[in-house]
Amino acid sequence: MAPLGEFDLIARYFTRPVRRAALGVGDDCALLDLAPGMTLAVSSDMLVEGRHFVSTVAPERLGHKALAVNLSDLAACGARPLAFTLALALPAADEAFLAPFARGLLALAERHDCELVGGDTTRGPLTIAITVFGELAPGTALLRSGARPGDDLYVSGLLGDARLALEVLRGRAAAPGEAFARIRRAMEEPEPRVALGRALVGIASSAIDVSDGLAGDLGHVLRRSGVGAVVEVDALPRSADLAAQAEALQRECLLAGGDDYELVFTAPVGRREAVAGAARAAATPVTRIGRIEPGQELRFVDAAGREVSGPATSFDHFRPDPPASAT
Amino acid sequence: MAPLGEFDLIARYFTRPVRRAALGVGDDCALLDLAPGMTLAVSSDMLVEGRHFVSTVAPERLGHKALAVNLSDLAACGARPLAFTLALALPAADEAFLAPFARGLLALAERHDCELVGGDTTRGPLTIAITVFGELAPGTALLRSGARPGDDLYVSGLLGDARLALEVLRGRAAAPGEAFARIRRAMEEPEPRVALGRALVGIASSAIDVSDGLAGDLGHVLRRSGVGAVVEVDALPRSADLAAQAEALQRECLLAGGDDYELVFTAPVGRREAVAGAARAAATPVTRIGRIEPGQELRFVDAAGREVSGPATSFDHFRPDPPASAT
Hints:
Two copies of one chain form a homodimer.
Chain A: H1 6-14, E1 21-23, E2 30-33, E3 39-48, H2 59-77, E4 80-90, H3 95-111, E5 115-123, E6 127-136, E7 152-156, H4 161-170, H5 177-188, H6 194-199, E8 206-209, H7 214-225, E9 228-232, H8 240-243, H9 247-256, E10 263-267, H10 272-281, E11 286-293, E12 298-301, E13 307-308
Parallel strand pairs in A: 4-5, 9-12
Antiparallel strand pairs in A: 1-2, 3-6, 4-6, 7-10, 7-11, 8-10, 9-11, 12-13
Helix pairs in contact in A: 2-3, 4-5, 4-9
């Protein structure tokens, strides 16, 4: 097949009819007319092959995930997705990659009414950088800084499946074929909790999405809010596939997993009914997993209230991977 | 030196006091409160080592250029810079790179009152993706589609020095030491024409910035506007360093150079005084280099009006570099 040029690529795979944008792909800038009295929420994420995804991932799932991790940041602020830009470095202009990548990316974008308004394609090691824009009413964003002692602590969905899939790929854990297909999907096609984030505006006191592991991301909330927390590890929601693993591996996946893209949030005890209503409205399961405390400590307890040790550290893209522990 | 973690990196080099943003670096999203009745202009560019810059470039200049190419897109729309996000992949968390990179980047941002509001850092092959936001009054953006037959054709500043520097690095041209320092600076530290773009709002009928070469970028304007153009190659503004080169190389650098980051724009003949006023107000030299014609052809003529041949093609990141021609 003849190699595609940059302009052909943009036109073929990424040009869509303009919707919300006053001007979309094809000029120097995209132009967005925003509603007066709205605040723009902006988030950027970059995915690098070998670091954020394995080379064996299906391109359609990779397209989905690249946008999903950004939408997850909007969800954590309670913002409504509006538009995004895509910067894409590719080793070659390969249609066998681009067609399914665009399909996965744009299908998720369509479901969230989030318009691709511009970007850049270039040759280079496979790297995907997306910047997403959302809007919300001024002063309503869910921030990391709003947790207060006494607040309940919640998490959406299930934790740990993405990390378990990674451990199976690394050969540190085993899962039967069907189970592996399920947990691999959790790793490769996370569902951003946009509807829940929006439903929690005015209810939650703080929120963050879990991308680097529950313990690490909750730590950001605690530091920003100047509070501590206690987490009941036996209450952490997990799949039957994860529950079938050894206890130590379960805890590692639940607390230091990463790539969960669930929302961890806090709300006053008096808002339990409202939280349940938001979860129903968003058709998203929510589990109460602990509470915010005075101080600055993050403690973990089991069902009997006994303290258990947490993970050593949060995931950091510039630190070497943690050494494999015996599980 | 101890390796820096991702969060340390963000804090040390890229956290700045929040100005325009309602919320800056450090939460899931940046929050921007926009003026009511304004349109948001958005542009993304990705720079990959070995493709967009040579590994010998000084990190401070690289930081400058990474933002400059994005501000140049805002300039070509006539937008006022507002804020930007940075996604950065680095082989290692190297302070000897990061400190000067951040310095060059943030110095240019400061001069244009353009706030860094978020981003992502990760390990990977050196790749820089920036998304920049600007604002302008609805309906006032300079678009590629507005050129009309009879309009004058202009370019800002000088063309071709960046390409000449590349040819010297490739060994296809020679330049004495001082000249090389000047043209290398043109390549590595382009000055985005933000003030000129803003001054041309309401005056220019179309505009684009020259990133892939005059002929190719002007071609985008012609296709979008459904018009042709004639360019007087002897009128193209060039430095004394470029004028000292062989005629064929001069034309190659002027017409197919790339990395110029000058504005090419059109305006009705009746607005010549207004264009001159805008150039003075922006303290930016502007040269009339031809005119828009009916049809769809891009023609090149010399000072005597004789047709000369243009470059074969525009730069395309997915096509191999053009074969070296005899100069």
